[in-house]
Amino acid sequence: MSSGVGVSTQSLGRCVPVCCSMPTSVGPGRTRRRTTVHTVAMDGAARRHDSSAAPPVRILEGQAGSDAAALAVRAYLDELTDRLQTHTDPALGIPGDPAEVTPPQGDFMLVSEVGSGEVVGFGAVHVLEPGVVEIRRMWLRPDVRGRGLGKFLLERLENRARSLGARRVLLGVNESLVEACGLYVSAGYEPVDRFEDNPYVTHHFGKQLVHDRPSGLT
Q1: Which end of the chain is more exposed for a tag (fewer CB within 10 A), N or C?
Q2: Which residue segment(s) compose the domain that 157 sits in?
Q3: Model confidence pTM above 0.85
């Protein structure tokens, strides 16, 4: 199984204040994007007593088409190939067209360690139809799992889906990814009918983010 990607987000810009946005240059074939940085860190006292705690990380939005995103997706596909014991088609990793995961159609988010700048995960969202957003190919590097980052990333993806107008989110996962299945169920996702033709996806889940008010209530 791949140990992950040794890519750094330093090339995406030096550390900037939390929750600020900065424009990035656009190269040939790239989609214009803005990078939003969010930083999360454990309480200092808790960190001193828990050596296995997740390192401080930042979420970088608007990364579709970036070199760091391509390397992270390649690491995801390498792991999937190893776990499924079969070749995986790169075209099924994320959309070939970055516009599908670029606002307003979606977003591609990288997770990087604050200290090292190394990418440790990613996730993407894509608007399927008004009010319905798909969470696509959420992934964390194996060595950072089991520390609460999965829940953190899933919550950030749900928040990003809400900002794109989602009232409901859908996602698909392969049954061999037992950690992911457990995470989604614990977060309130329920089985739904198949909504995509990806042959590697065996289970489909959905979650209502915004509930309609009962009629007669104001």
Answers
A1: C
A2: 10-208
A3: no
